[in-house]
Amino acid sequence: MKMRTLAALAIGMLGSSSVLAVPTLQLDIDGGTYLGGTEESTVTNAATFDLWALGKVPSVDTTIDYYLSIALLPQSQNIGDPANLGGITVNGTALSSLIGDSEYGTPPIESISNGGELGPHGIFDTLYYQIAFSFDGLPTVASYNVQDDTAGPAGEELFKQVFQIDASSLAMGYGLHFDLYTYGETNGNRTAITDFAPFSHDAAYCVDRNCEPVEVSEPSTLALFGISLIGLVAIRRRLITS
Q: In 3D, which of 233, 234, 235, 229 has the Cα closest to residue 81?
């Protein structure tokens, strides 16, 4: 076989592997910027934005819940009253109006029998909450990889859940990190996270777009904000996109 033919085959194989490398779960931000290096996430510094949870058809299970975790940046100690942190809304709903408690540590909120949590990946432990939703009945878009916007295989599609995030009332100096995952259940017991967006396909809101840690006020100073509860809560109902 001629070297030119071998080279063409090699290039074709590389190209096809790149196309096929669309993970089952991804997060993207409308108008966001993908950052490589240590961040490896789609990032925005706009306080209001649309966050997209993407699930590959038919790899995702439309009969179960998936979870969006929203975590406080930078890593923070368990500082107590989350009301000091300001507030955010998701799809127009102020999270402070929902019933629940903040969680400190590493997602998921539910107890996992064998300790199967997400990896810390430089984000956890910190304050976080999670939103449950289903991919069932959601609109679809043509498959692509959020890292470089390369198209997936011809005919492949992604479910798309839109979360309209408004972090304009979040206390100064803080940002948000987003993870997407689901976990299995056996005999009514949560067993382990069974699928998650690779850490290279997460998303973040950062005042400083490179997501480097920034200096934040002490909790006693944050209390002066007087803003309603940030809503670090586990949401037990589905949020319907408008």
A: 229
CA dist., res. 45 & res. 167, Å (int): 10
Looking at every residue in the chain, the average pLDDT score rounds to 76
pLDDT band with cut points at 50, 70 and 90 for residue 215: very low
Residue 191's pLDDT band, with cuts at 50, 70 and 90, is low
Q: How far apart are CA 203 and CA 53, in angstroms?
A: 10
Q: Which contacts of 191-197 are long-range, i.e. CB under 8 A and separated by 24 or more positions? A: 191/112, 191/113, 191/114, 191/116, 192/112, 192/113, 192/114, 192/116, 193/108, 193/112, 193/116, 193/117, 193/118, 195/24, 195/25, 195/60, 196/25, 196/118, 197/23, 197/25, 197/26, 197/27
Residue type, 223: A
Return the number of other C-beta atoms located less than 10 Å from residue 89's C-beta. Answer: 18
Write down the pTM of the prediction: 0.78
Q: Which token pair is 177?
A: 């990190």
Locate all alpha helices (DSSP H) within 74-191, ordered by sequence: none
Q: Are 138 and 169 in contact (CB under 8 A)?
A: no
In the numeric block, which tokens belong to residue 103?
């969680």
The domain locations on the chain are: 23-235
- How many other CB atoms are found less than 10 A from the CB of residue 107? 25
- 124 forms beta bridges with none
For a pLDDT cut of 90, what percent of the chain falls above it? 42
